[in-house]
Structures are given as C-alpha cells and as structure tokens.
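SUBJECT: A protein chain and its fold
Encoding: whole-number codes for local backbone shapes
Chain under study, with its fold:
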Amino acid sequence: MDSLPLYHRIAGQPVIVLGEGDAAVAKRRLVARAGGQIETDLQEGIDRGARLAFIAHSDAASAEADAIRARCAGLLVNVVDRPALCDFTVPSLLERGPVVVAVGTGGVSAGLAKALRLRLEAMLPPSLGELASALGAMRERLRTLFPDGGTRRRAIDAALAAGAPLDPLDPGAAGRVENWLDGAAASVPESIEIHLRSADPDDLTLREARALGSADVVAFEPAVPAAVLLRARADAVPHRLVPGAPPPTLPGLIVVVRYS
C-alpha cells in the first residue's frame, strides 16, 4: 500500500474543479454532494484557501501545467485518468447514513473498485446507518461504563462480531443497542492465545481472526508467518517472543500467536 486512506471534510470549504466534459461534471457533482464550494478558477480557488484540486482537462499539457501550479500553491491534486500526476485518488463510495465505505485501487482500476462496491452494496443492509447513529448517541454512556479506552473498544468489538447482538449485517441490530448496553459490563478478555495450524492466514478461525483484529498487543514467536500478522490491527503493538516464553505484561488485549 503506497497511499494512506483518509476522509477529508470539505463541507463549506472551497474545492477547485477544473475542466469540462463528463469527467469534470462528475467531480463537481462529487464535491457538491459532500458540501464543498466549487471553484472553477485556479487562482481564485488558491486565493480562497482551497486545499484540494480536481483537474479534468482533456489536454495532457494543460492538465500537467495546472497540476504543477496547484501543487506549488500547497494543494493536494487529483488529475483525472493520470495517476502519475495525482496526490490522491477518489475511491468508489458506498453510503449508509454516516457509514461511508470507500473502495480504492490507487488509481489502477476504477472499474474493479466499482465492481467491489456493487458487491458490498448487496451485503450491507440499509439499517447500517441507523446502527451507527444509535452507537453515536450512546457515546457518553459508553465512556461512563468503560472509562478505559481499550476496554471500551474491546466491548464494542465483541458486540459487533458476526452473530453478536450488534452484528452490523443484522437488520435488527440498531434496535438492540440500548439493551446491549444494559448488560455490557460483563468481563472483557485481556489475553487470548492462538496456536496456528498452518502458515495460511485463511485457516484462522473466525474467533482467531476477530481477536487479531481487536488486539492492542500482538505477541508472536519467530516462526509465525508475516501474512498472519498482517491480519492484526494496523496500530497494534508487535512483541516478538522467545519460543515458549510467557506473554508480556502490558495493558490492553494481548493476543499471543504461536506456531511451532
């Protein structure tokens, strides 16, 4: 991965969109949908403090010239159909209320991103936005119930797991948020041990995959394949173990992975 996926808030902010034709119209529609104020003049957009520029000129030389000018002014630039000139790319978007799923390929294949998004459209129920809003409304109560951030995150992870009370793919999950909170003070595991049966990460059980995805610390023996460790949270703390050694004493959920 050579890009860092981010959500950029542009509501009420100037965004430069240059060019004519279908591509430029599509970019203007995208910006307007997110609440951005469209600027069609590069210098005026720069003067207004725009931070993003979409360039959709059909002429390659004009596109490159405006991309350089915008970048020199400190803007992040997207040039339609010219990935080498882009600072950022635009993913295919799936929206369920406040839930936005972005599928990107780094500009390699917009068609593939769209195809994947359409498959996800069929999987994710319309009620997903309601679930997100219900959890947001309970944020302060969750903080009170679980003052420690790591414990709070693990409790929510467990509730959102497949088949759990707040399973995101269950259309009725949003209506169970309050009842779940009433019993959410149940203990949350602090340590889970995984003994791999093969080097293939697809052989992980659902429970093991969920544990890796929730871990604060991943302690692993040297023989554990890198492909398995990639299934862990990106910000989990890695801890290399001597084979047979006990897990470290660190705060948060510790997942110990052994393979010998």
In short: Residues 128-182 form one domain. Residues 30 and 249 are 48 Å apart (CA to CA). The first strand starts at residue 14 and ends at 18.
